[in-house]
Amino acid sequence: MYFNSIFYKVKLGMLILLLSISVCTSVYLFHTKYQKQNTEIDNIRNGLSGMLPFVSNGSAFNFVGGTPKVQLLLWSRYALFPIQLDRIEDKKRDTALVLFPIADTVASILDSKKIIWSNKDAYYQYYLICRP
Amino acid sequence: MNRNSVFIIGIAIFLVGISVVYFFSLPFGVPLSITALFILLFGFFFFKYIFNITKFEVQNNDRPIYNILSYFVLCFALFLLTKNTNNVAEKYGGWDAWWFWNYRAKYFTDNSLWNIKTLETYDKDLLVQRVAHADYPPGLSSLVAFFWRLFNTQSTSVPFCISFLFAAFIPVLLFIELHKKNLLIASIIILWLVTNENYILEGTLMLSDIWISFFLLATIIGIEHYRASSNPNFLILSGASLGCSLWTKNEALLLLFMIIVFYGVNLLQKNVFRYFIIGLIVPMCALFIFKIFYATPGDLFVSNWHETIHKLTDIKRYETIWSYFIKEINIHYNSLKKVFLAYLIICFLLRKLPSVGVLFIISCITSYFMVYSITPHNLDWHVSTSIDRLVLHLAPALVYVLFIGFSKLLHRKQIIA
Q1: pLDDT greater than 80 at residue B79
Q2: Residue A5 to residue B410: CA distance in whole angstroms
Q3: How far is CA B122 from CA B26, B52, B128, in A?
Q4: Which of B161, B169, B205 to mutate to probe the A interface, most A CBs <10 Å?
Q5: Beta bridge partners of A99
Q6: Is any Cβ of chain B less than 8 angstroms from the Cβ of A39?
Q7: pLDDT in tens, A79-120
Q8: First CA to last CA across chain A, in angstroms?
Q9: B244 and B329: one domain?
Q10: What would the pLDDT profile of B363-399 be if each residue is shown by its tens digit?
Q11: Residue B283 Cα, gap to closest chain A Cα (Å)
Q12: Bridge partners of A114?
């Protein structure tokens, strides 16, 4: 009965405390576990970071990607925000981001294009190209 | 409803309130500090109201309901949830999180993209062209964006925290609501939920489905408590919960329709439907403004009615949906399925109709099936990639209504005996 009365009086505070401990612990574990872990998005962000001085925030490019194309496009969009990357080629634009796995051949895509910037890492090759 | 339940539902509604206020501050270029001050003011009055409801409840509470065992179960469940979510969480959440929920949140953090003074000059291109699922309400993205700007970060710890909070709210709310009636069964339910593989995964993916799941549960709890106590405040909370789910995802419109069909008539007869509307009105207006001025048309409904009717009456499509549904149930909700079937069999043997809540859930499943059947996308792809989340919407509410249904059946049996 003694314990009942104690818990009865503080139950809301106790519940808030329990929830807070749980949430804080969970977020702390999540943060420490992942802050140093590199995912595909981080790899692409690192790979594309050198391109940023060449483009402004409001830029919009076409996207030419290797396999898996949808993921590469979406990861790049996420990493490069607010730069716009379009899945469907816009003929009016003269600039495109080319992103392929490192093992793929991209010579035919780069042929007769001016390369503004390029980079290679352990996973992918990146080119920012435009019409000459 | 005890004060803990009201408080948990209150926090969730307040979070959605932040999302609504922040979203509508963007087109008008309101500085973040002013928005934050307004949110603080809103929070003050909102929680004053919430504590007024709970004050009433405490005065009428005739027995202490908590004991050491309850706290032990609660602590253990939260410990398991924390441990299990940490094992399965992903840095950027699920596909939908980095594809559009968090990506859209980035749009909502960038002032330069929202440098417009009136709704009329709003450049729809921002949402139409660049962001996927632009017809979805911005609830989750807007809330994430608010905290990202507030803490000057774009860390995924913020959406993870929000996701985890709702994932913790559901089992805790269920436990708080049910342990008064039967501590053992309430303990089994909370421990089952926090160890359920699908539930834990969905709780960490940073998606809005866990919100729908919570708010549907809160809506039904509010209505059930109104029926038991006739306290209109519970109806207001219930309406607000449903409204919050509307601000979360399009599926909630279907749930709203179902709630009106199954509970609305009863509430109208008692002349109390207005209380439900009071809670619903603010988020619903916010949704309408969003849908009229900002959202793109949804991609789910095809314009050709002949094709729609053909799809709706095609049995093979339902067989496909059913096969994925049953597979999901058998893998992740097998015990819930057995309890559900047991309840239906008992009802049949007693020659009694299942409770309104159970019928409501069955109808929701049916209507989800119908929506799936008219999808313009590849049916297999659409169902297989989303059925787990749709089951999640309904599972906690089903647990609650089954518990209440069994309680009523047993009560009836005692009276007969």
Answers
A1: yes
A2: 30
A3: 11, 40, 12
A4: B161
A5: A65, A126
A6: yes
A7: 888 888 877 777 778 889 999 999 888 888 888 889 999 999
A8: 85
A9: no
A10: 999 999 999 999 888 899 999 999 999 999 999 999 9
A11: 26
A12: A130
Question: Token pair 């048309």 is at which residue?
Answer: B297
Boundary (domain end) residue, out of B253, B277, B297: B297
Beta-carbon separation of B172 and A34 below 8 A: no
* Cβ(B216)–Cβ(B255) below 8 Å: yes
Give yes or no for a contact between B218 and B241, defined as CB atoms under 8 angstroms apart: yes
Taking only the tens place, the pLDDT of each residue in A47-62 is 999 999 888 877 888 8
Sheet holding A124-130, edge to edge: A84-86, A60-65, A95-101, A124-130, A114-120
Residues B286 and B341 in one domain: no
Inter-chain touch A4–B64, beta carbons under 8 Å: yes
* Domain end among B263, B282, B297: B297
State which amino acid sits at residue B2. N
Ramachandran bin of B182, using left for φ above 0, alpha for ψ from -120 to 50, beta for the remaining angles = beta
**Start-to-end CA span in chain B (Å):** 29
Nearest to A12 among B7, B65, B160 (CB): B7
